[in-house]
Amino acid sequence: MSHPHIDLAVIGGSGLYNFPGLQNATRHAVDTPYGPASGEVVQGDFAGRTVAFLARHGESHSLPPHRVNYRANLWALHHLGARRVVGVNAVGGIRDDMGPRVIVVPDQLIDYTHGRFTSFCDVDGAEVKHIDFSEPYTASLRGELLAAAARVGVPAIDGGCYGATQGPRLETRAEISRMKRDGCDLVGMTGMPEACLARELELDYACLALVANFAAGCGDEAEISIEEIFAHLAAATANVPVIIGELLKR
Ligand code: HPA
């Protein structure tokens, strides 16, 4: 490959459609065996390193969570040379201390999604691979994110269980109560199958979860306002390049 080494890939979620501060950017439309990725991968210099960025929902947010081609996205990043991926995900907070604008680096997940392609091994001739997924996120990358956040003074919670729902609708209060009983601390729509596909490709993968709202029935509000979600997300998102920049300095 002619592409330079990529130090870190970032998959941006809702509210993060480009990576602020990326210099000398080049765009790569990758042809994947799984169809088109969410868009072009934008590769550039950041904090003296090479970063690849991909907007999970497309740069104009045209893809809902259940229509994101997770396989193509991860395959494209891997193909370009990425070996470490941070997924930035907007989430609803279930746990009391995970209110709007809080940043969490989850350490577990439960998958409630359905009808999504969850593996690269469902094409003819592909090797069948059973990955270990006891720890769905890469401990070292999680640690680097948390250490970087601490160094720049951005509070981030270490650990939590991310429940991945199908969307695109938000959940009912009963669904969130059940998820709470299941042990979920956060709820989002895009954490899976991204995490297990990353593991199949042997990529280091961690999730930077940005809390946009209290999940249904968890806050004081009777209804969740989508405008509020995006306002909180914008505030939390501003910290992402700060954390990533610090992570890359080490
Ligand atoms: N539920 C699911 N996904 C979300 C939420 C939520 O409340 N907020 C942001 N992403």
Bound molecule types: hypoxanthine
Strand content: 15-25%
Q: CATH class, please? A: Alpha Beta
User: In the CATH scheme, what's the topology name?
Assistant: Rossmann fold
> On the 0-100 scale, what is the average pLDDT?
95
Q: What is the helix content?
A: 25-40%
Radius of gyration over alpha carbons? 17 Å
Calculate the terminal CA-CA distance, rounded to whole Å: 26 Å
Class by helix and strand content? alpha/beta
Largest sheet: 11 strands, mixed
**What do we call the CATH homologous superfamily?**
Nucleoside phosphorylase domain
* Annotation, overall tally of beta strands: 11
User: Could you list the spans in which at least 5 consecutive residues all have pLDDT below 50?
Assistant: none
Q: SSE string, helix = H, strand = E?
A: EEEEHEEEHEEHEHEHH
Task: Give an overview of the whole structure.
This protein is α/β, with parallel strands linked by helices and 250 residues long. It is built from six helices and eleven strands. Strands 1, 2, 3, 4, 5, 6, 7, 8, 9, 10 and 11 form an eleven-stranded mixed sheet that branches. The site of hypoxanthine (HPA) has 13 residues, from strand 5, strand 10 and strand 11.
Task: Summarize the entry for a quick read.
By secondary structure, the protein is α/β, with parallel strands linked by helices. It is built from six helices and eleven strands. It has one domain: Nucleoside phosphorylase domain (Rossmann fold), CATH 3.40.50.1580.
Helix and strand topology:
Blueprint: E1 8-12, E2 23-28, E3 41-46, E4 49-55, H1 70-80, E5 84-93, E6 103-105, E7 108-111, H2 139-151, E8 157-158, E9 161-164, H3 173-182, E10 186-188, H4 194-200, E11 204-214, H5 226-237, H6 240-249
Parallel strand pairs: 1-4, 1-5, 5-11, 6-8, 7-9, 9-10
Antiparallel strand pairs: 2-3, 3-4, 5-10, 6-11
Helix pairs in contact: 2-6
